[in-house]
Amino acid sequence: MIKLLASDLDGTIIDNYNQVTNEDLQVIHKLNNTNVSFAVCTGKTYSMTKHICNKLNPTYGIFGNGTQIVNLKTGEEIKRNVVSNFKAIECLKIAEKNHLHIHIYTEDKIISQQQLKYMAFRNYILYKDQVQFKVVESLEKYIQEKNPNILKLVISGEKDLKDVKEQIEEKEDLRAIQIKKYREYKDKVINQEYEYLDIVPEHVTKYDAIQQLSHYLNIQNEEVMAVGDNINDIEMIKHSGVGVAIGDSYQEVKDVANYVTKNTVKNGGFAEAVYKFIQL
Description:
The chain is α/β, with parallel strands linked by helices. The chain has ten helices and 14 strands. It has helices at residues 22-31, 46-56, 85-97, 118-127, 139-146, 162-172, 206-217, 234-239, 251-256, 269-277, and strands at 4-7, 37-41, 60-63, 68-71, 77-80, 101-105, 109-113, 132-136, 152-157, 174-181, 194-201, 224-228, 242-245, 259-260. The longest helix has 13 residues, at 85-97. It starts with a strand and ends with a helix. The mean pLDDT is 95.
């Protein structure tokens, strides 16, 4: 019996333009009237997703790929991890050395160095009404002067970032998730191909956060269902009791899933997953 359903948002419940199908809305409404705890589990920060959380009405939120866990009914922050300002500046130096774009995420802001590009520009188009966007000449100076709480940072560019990922993980004790937006995964919002590193504190993952939430709720791993589509969902889909990949997921995600939906995010793949494994 599933007692906790943790689901990614982008590409799983919401499409490229933050739309949710009627099928998914209906099944979420039914789900919220059961004893199953529903948690959104996203790489985005809480401030970026408040509007969609209000629409979906989940009980819990896992944000920033696991940097923050929030009880959305009470407002209680169950967990928070931040990237130290020192480590963020070291990442900035690595990005500058490799001529890459970098931006950081705080609780209510996205701060980009010199210009909005790649993921920062995509987020501006989609979330400019929910989050403050700031462009600064020197991100290092901004960090030193403002001393922000950095939930995560992103380095992006139009080249293979494998070596940069290795530099960061070896030197800074951080975790960098490499995601490629090429070919069928091209970023359709800004009509561009690129790849990026989503950087969080070491050992922080969506699955680690799910484990912590499960412990908080006294739920066993076999009672957890995880649904997603992207590279940062692999661990939670692979290791949860039931792992489901949405139909148009990255192939690496499909390879570790217990079940792959026939439907995609655009035609109710999430609803299919819920009906498959949960009695409503």
